[in-house]
Amino acid sequence: MADLPAERATPAAPFEFTTVDLFGPYLVKDDIKKRASPSGEIRTFDFANYPYKRLREMQNQDRKLTKAEQQRFKEEAEMLKGLQHPNIVRFYDSWESVLRGKKCIVLVTELMTSGTLKTYLKRFKVMKPKVLRSWCRQILKGLHFLHTRTPPIIHRDLKCDNIFITGPTGSVKIGDLGLATLMRTSFAKSVIGTPEFMAPEMYEEHYDESVDVYAFGMCMLEMATSEYPYSECQNAAQIYRKVTSGIKPASFDKVNDPEIKEIIGCCIRQDKSQRLSIRDLLTHAFFGEDTGVRVELAEEDTGCQDCLALRIWVEEPKKLKGKHKDNEAIEFSYDLENDSAEEVASEMVKSGFFHESDAKVVGKSIRDRVTLIKKSRERRQQQLLQQQQGFDERRDSTLTSSTCSHLSSLGPGVAGLTGGGGGG
């Protein structure tokens, strides 16, 4: 994806706000009044360019912003105006105002008319795997766009409540980016986020883009189970204790699909260095564009360290030749040292399983799955190494403490001799 230009030109605003004022529940522009909804949102119509806009008020904190904070606010608002991506809700403008006697900040964004993932889950309860895969892929594309800006943009409050569905296409867009970003400027001393979706390091306020990976994992968990993460907890304090102790939500055990469960587990690890990156997730076979071919690990332990037992499913019958039946998997072995995905795919074509025109698709599917398995093994190896190092450190500490305690019991003379010194 292309980076933003070095000198970001402010796009021509389709809606000018120079004459906008807020009076009570009304937005007044060019003598046209529109009543606000109970939630504080105000819908307006731009007769010149036709797109609907969504306005939200954000209550400012009691204290005044410093000049540095005001400048940062303006810079970040300008930056947000320049963000355009098919999976990001457009941010148009923001300004300070006084509403009902209190200072507030008005945010103007693209209006999404088909609700959020949250409302979808409440209505339909069960999300089909194909829909989950497609929407998760779009969320990842939006996050990848944000994380590859210079400097990277972190959402910090990703959840199903602010992932919006577009009516005409059924695609999804990440929203409330302006709210999350500008709240961080205005409430710099506070922890901003939703406890159920907050990575443990957010409570320490030392974090990076991986907090969005964690939140994505929780979104995927809610999409897979239709259950809010940590709904078993009674309050934020209970959630905090579980999150910081590395205890997964109870709903995690309700995920039936082993592949989805593995992906979620890799996203919500307590140690951020052990989480998958957005790039890793986008190259994951599960989130690949629907090619009609799916490769999975058939057997974890084959008795050979460099050998994999793989299984390939063909979900599009047209890709099969007469030698293979529908709804049957093709099982094959793969040597990590000597085989290549392209060679294996070519052999399958020669053996009459696939048409030659599908060799590239099959080869890519095999390569993506093998790459993922390798990375998973490397992460497990690293975890085992860290666990062993932790065990060794605890053992050495215990031995040292035990030795010192034993020497102390023998008397000060012996302790002084072993300490390498005495007075002379």
From TrEMBL:
| Keyword presence, Transferase | yes
Asked whether the UniProt record includes Kinase among its keywords, one would answer yes
EC no. given is: 2.7.11.1
Cofactor(s), by name: Mg(2+)
Record SUPFAM superfamilies: Protein kinase-like (PK-like)
Q: Which InterPro entries match?
A: Kinase-like_dom_sf, Kinase_OSR1/WNK_CCT, Prot_kinase_dom, Ser/Thr_kinase_AS, WNK_Ser-Thr_kinase
Q: Which reaction does it catalyse?
A: L-threonyl-[protein] + ATP = O-phospho-L-threonyl-[protein] + ADP + H(+); L-seryl-[protein] + ATP = O-phospho-L-seryl-[protein] + ADP + H(+)
Main localization, broad class: cytoplasm
**Which molecular function terms from Gene Ontology are attached?**
ATP binding; protein serine/threonine kinase activity
Cite the entry's keywords alphabetically.
ATP-binding, Cytoplasm, Kinase, Nucleotide-binding, Phosphoprotein, Serine/threonine-protein kinase, Transferase
Q: Which ranges carry the Protein kinase domain?
A: 17-287
Q: Name any GO cellular component annotation.
A: cytoplasm
The subcellular location is: Cytoplasm
Q: What domain of life?
A: Eukaryota
Protein name, UniProt field? non-specific serine/threonine protein kinase
Originating organism? Salvelinus namaycush (Lake trout)
- Print the organism lineage: Eukaryota, Metazoa, Chordata, Craniata, Vertebrata
Q: What gene name is given for the protein in this entry?
A: LOC120060978
